[in-house]
Design goal:
This protein is an alpha/beta fold and about 600 residues long. The chain has 24 helices and 20 strands. The longest helix is centred in the N-terminal third of the chain and has 21 residues.
Amino acid sequence: MKTHPTLGLAMIMKDEIADLDRIIHDYGSRFDKIYVTVTDKKTYNTLRRRRANGFEAGGLVALSYFEWIDHFGKARLFNQKQIKTDYWMWIDLDDEIEGSEHLSQVVDYMIAKKLDAVVFRYDRTNRTSSTEPDPIQWRERVIRTSSDLKWGDKAVHENIHIEGSTDMLLSDVVIKHRKTAKQKLLSSERNKLILEKEWQREPSVETAQYLGASLMDEGNFEGAIEKIVYVTKNSDSKVEQFRAWRRLSDCYLRLERYDVAFAAADECIAIDDSHPDPWYQKFAICQAMNRYHTAVYFAEIAMSKSLEGEMAVLLVNDLSLYEYRGPFDVAKIYLAIGNVERAYALYSDVKKKAPQYIDDVSTENGVQWNDVFEQAYDDYKNSPLTLHDTRIKDLKLLVYRSVLDGKPREGSADEAELNYLAGLAQQPGVKRIAEIGFNAGMSSYAFLYANPDATVVSFDLGEYDYGPPAKDIIDEEFPGRHELIFGDSTKTVLEYHAAHPEEKFDLIFIDGGHDYETARADIRNMRKLAAENAIVVTDDLTPWLAWGEGPHRAWTEAIEWGVIEQDEIVKDGEVVDEIHPPGDRIYARGRYAK
C-alpha cells in the first residue's frame, strides 16, 4: 500500500520556549515530525522534563542538544542529521507560516516535478508605516531529504547548498518574520561579532558580503566598502556581484562620492540591465547632485523595467519601491523641474495604489503633498498664457524645490489673484507699488510685468530659503525696478517712512503676517506710505481658516473704525457681496479713508 511521503519541520533554538509552543500549536498538525535542536543546556533539560510529563502527545517533537560554539552553520548541520522524514522544511522560532495548510500540496508538487528543493517568499520586515521599505526575498524552505542537500558550513550564513533541481514556488505559502526592532538590533550585534571572528579566522565572499551589510546598517560606510570590494574581486556569482556593486554604490552615495557611486551602479547594469534597481540608484545619485533632468531620465528607464528573471527573484526586492515609493519620488522631481503634467500623472497613480503612503510621507515631512500636487496642477491648468509663458513658472519652481528638500514654505497667490493684481497695476496713475509679503516674488512679478513703468518696494520677513534666489530672478527680468527690504514689517515699514518721508505709493498690497497684531499694524503703518486715493488690497480674509482669522479681524476693524473704505471683495476669483464660507482665497480692495 502506497503511503504519502512524510514532512518534517527543522529548527534550532536557544531559549524561546513560548515561540516553540506557538509553532507546535499553530503548525504541528501539518508535519509528521518537528526536529528541534536546542543550544542552551538549561532549556534542553526543561523541555526533556516537560516531554516526560506529557509535554506533547504521540512523539511529535524530536529533541536534540548541540553545545553552542558561535556557529549557526554547524548547529544547523547537526539539526539536519536528526531528520528522518522524506522531506523537511526549516523556519526560525520567530517565523510564521502563512498558508501552512498548503504544505502537503507543495510536497505533491515537488514529487510531480522531481524537485530537490523549493524556494518560498520570505517577508523579513514588519513595517509600522507605509513609508518604510518593504523588502522581501526568497529562501530555500522545503528539501528532499535523500537529495543530500546540506547547510553551508558557515558561521552566520543561512543557505542550503543547492546543486540539484529546485524551483521558485509561487505558492500560497509565505514565511513571515516576527522579530521586533529590539530583537533585530540584538541579533545584528550578535551576528556582527560572529562575522568578525569568522573573517579573522577565514575570509570568504559570504562573510564579506554579510559583514559589509552589517557595517552599512550601522553607518560605517568606509568599513563596509572594504569588505564589499572583497566580494567584487573574489565572487564568481552574478547574483553576489550584482548585490555587492549595488551596495557599493549606496555606500559611495552616502559618502557623497557621486562619480564612484555612479560607476558602481553601471557595474550592476553591466551584469543585468533588466533589473530596475540600479536605474533607480542612478536616479537617486543624480537627485543628490541636483541634476534633476538627468535624474528623471534614469527614473523613466527604471519604471519601464519589470521584476522578472533570476536577479528579481534571488535578490532582495523592495516591491514598494517599484510600485509607489520610487514613482512618488520621481513625481516630486518632475514637479521641481516644472513638468507638472508628468508629475501629476505619477502622483495620481501613486494615490490610487497607496493613498496611505502619501499621508504618511506628509506627516513625516510636515508637507501636505496632496495639497502641493493638486495646487500645482490646478495652477498649471488655469494658468493664463501671458503669465504661464513668463518666469512666474521659475518662481514657482523655487518653492517646489524648497518643499522637495523638506524646507518650510508659504502659500503664494494663485493665478486668478495674480491677474487681479496685474490688472490693478495697469490702472491709470499707478507708478509706485508697495507690498508686504514678497515670499517667492510672484506678486512682484505680476506688478512689474503688467506695468513696464512701475517700480515695486517689497517688505518681507525673509524666513524662506527661496527668497534671495526669487529676488535674483526679479532683478534679472526687471533691473532697477524692484527693492526688497528684509525684516519685521511692523518695524521696517516705519523705518522706511522715516528715511523716505516724501515717498508715496499708488498701489499697496498687504499679504504679510497672519496673526491679528501684525495684520493690524501692517494696515495702519502702510497708511503712512499711501498716496492720495491709493488702492489697498489685503489678502487671506478667510476667518474659517486658521491663517485668515487675524487678517479678517484686522481688515474688518479697519473698516469699522474708519481707517479703510472697502470697494470690492473677491472670493476664489469671483466678486462677491460679503465674506462667508466656504472659500479658499478671499481678498478685498479699498482705499484709506481721508
